[in-house]
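ok new one. same drill as before - C-alpha cells go in, u give me an amino acid for every spot. 201 of them this time. try not to just spam alanines like last time pls lmao
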C-alpha cells in the first residue's frame, strides 16, 4: 500500500515538474529580444576579466521554441575563439575598424549559467614594447531574465545563422503540372468514350 502511494506521489511530482518545465520553455513567443548578461569565472560568482570584451545587452532570438543568442565582441582581434556549452561560434558580421564582431550560438536556457571558453591571443606593442600573450580561459555566461525586453515579432527579423531559406516555386513548374494533368484527363476521357462506343456497337 505504501509502495503504491509512493509511486503515485512520485508520478504527481514528475508531472508537475514536467509541466512547469514545458511552460518555461514555451513562455517566450517567436521574436527577437534583448537580454543583459555577465561573464563570470568558471565555477565562481566573481566577474571574469573577459566580461569587458563583450558589449551588452545580447540579442536573444526565439524561433520554433528554440533559442539563439547573438553576442557582440569588442577586442575582436584578441578573442580568437569562443564557445558556449560546447557550441562553436557562428560569425554574423565583423567590423575591423571598431575591432568588433557579432557571433551567434544556440542556447539551451537563459535561466541557468552556461559554461564557455575563450581563447585570448595578443601580439602587439604595448607602451612601445612587444607584448605576446596566449591563453585559454573557462568562463560562464549568466543571463539576467529580469532585463529581458522584446524588440520585434516580425518574422523577417527572426533570422537564424545557417538557416535554409525556402525558394518560391517557379511558375513554369506549375504550368507543366497543369498541362500534364490536362493530358492525363484527356486520355482518360477518350478511353471511356471508346469503351462506351464498343458497348453500344
Amino acid at each position: 500500500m505504501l509502495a503504491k502511494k509512493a509511486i503515485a506521489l512520485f508520478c504527481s511530482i514528475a508531472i508537475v515538474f514536467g509541466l512547469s518545465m514545458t511552460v518555461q520553455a514555451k513562455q517566450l513567443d517567436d521574436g527577437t529580444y534583448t537580454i543583459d548578461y555577465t561573464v563570470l569565472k568558471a565555477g565562481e560568482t566573481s566577474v571574469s576579466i573577459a566580461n569587458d570584451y563583450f558589449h551588452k545587452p545580447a540579442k536573444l532570438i526565439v524561433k520554433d521554441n528554440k533559442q539563439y543568442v547573438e553576442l557582440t565582441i569588442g577586442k575582436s582581434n584578441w578573442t580568437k575563439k569562443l564557445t558556449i556549452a560546447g557550441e562553436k561560434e557562428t560569425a554574423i558580421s565583423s567590423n575591423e575598424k571598431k575591432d568588433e564582431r557579432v557571433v551567434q550560438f544556440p542556447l539551451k536556457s537563459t535561466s541557468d549559467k552556461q559554461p564557455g571558453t575563450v581563447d585570448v591571443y595578443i601580439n602587439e606593442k604595448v607602451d612601445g614594447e612587444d607584448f605576446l600573450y596566449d591563453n585559454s580561459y573557462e568562463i560562464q555566461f549568466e543571463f539576467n531574465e529580469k532585463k529581458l525586453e522584446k524588440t520585434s515579432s516580425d518574422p523577417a527579423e527572426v533570422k537564424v545563422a545557417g538557416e535554409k531559406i525556402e525558394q518560391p516555386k517557379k511558375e513554369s513548374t506549375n504550368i507543366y503540372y497543369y498541362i500534364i494533368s490536362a493530358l492525363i484527363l484527356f486520355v482518360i476521357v477518350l478511353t471511356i468514350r471508346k469503351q462506351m462506343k464498343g458497348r453500344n456497337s
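Helices lie at 2-26, 171-200. and btw Confidence is low (pLDDT under 50) at residues 2-26, 165-172.
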